[in-house]
Amino acid sequence: MALIGNLRERPVRRLSQLYAGLVLYGVSMALMVRSQLGLDPWDVFHQGLSELTGLSFGTVTIGVGALVLLLWIPLRQRPGLGTVSNVVVVGLVVDATLALLPAGGPLGVRIALLITGIVANGAATALYLGARLGPGPRDGLMTGFVARRPRFSVRLVRTAIEVTVLALGWLLGGTVGVGTVAYALAIGPLAQFFIPLVAVPPAKADADDESTVTAGDPSRAPAA
Predict the structure, then answer these.
(1) Rg (CA), the chain
(2) pLDDT tens, position by position, 115-138
(3) Number of helices and strands (H, E) in the chain?
(4) Which among 3, 137, 183, 212 is placed 20 to 30 Å from 82, CA to CA?
């Protein structure tokens, strides 16, 4: 799979924004884990697998991301630098942050961790998508399937995937709670708010890359 993403235009800005977004994404995941109030569907799945295998949360996140990326091959999706970086950087950062953040604490502190984590996740999503260097592997799985099976809507495919991983994660012992619902309700509006603030406008030569960002952008896709 050849990497997409033209770095001839504003490479320093775009690379800095990409990796700032991925680091912030990993930190936001760790904040939600430490809140113990519920995770987003994919992280419920990651946590459940971590409990089952004894591997660290970040290691499982990297492993699942790599496996999902392999599913892009039959869908004929092309990853970007941001896609591959997403697989590795987010997992490393979430493990490092979890090592620094103590577990438990008063409910008020945990609520603050949850809210901060959700808002930071929305900002992080905008940063790495706005760099136009490729969506995350999980977003690409969704949009790639829809591209190959246009009779299915993005909303339907995304809902089916996330309900499936949420149910599997819950059965494996992942944390489902008020944070799961709060994330589902807030992440779309948050991304929609932040993306116009940080998106790097595409050059004419990068028009094809823009379609990738649009496909993975939760504020533009009709996903729940």
Answers:
(1) 17
(2) 999 999 999 999 998 998 988 898
(3) 10, 0
(4) 183
Residue 131: φ, ψ to 5°: -75, -15
Nearest C-alpha neighbor of 26 from the set 75, 90, 109 = 90
Which amino acid, residue 88?
A: V
Which neighbouring-strand residues pair with 80?
A: 4
Q: What is the pTM of this model?
A: 0.85
Residues 32-52 pLDDT 10s = 999 999 999 999 999 999 999
147 φ, ψ (degrees, to nearest 5): -65, -35
Question: Whole-angstrom Cα distance, residue 172 to residue 168?
Answer: 6
Whether the CB-CB separation of 186 and 121 falls below 8 Å is answered with no
Token readout for 132 is 């136009």
Six-digit token string for 88: 């590795």
b/e 57-70 (16+ beta carbons within 10 angstroms → b): bbbbbbbbbeebbe
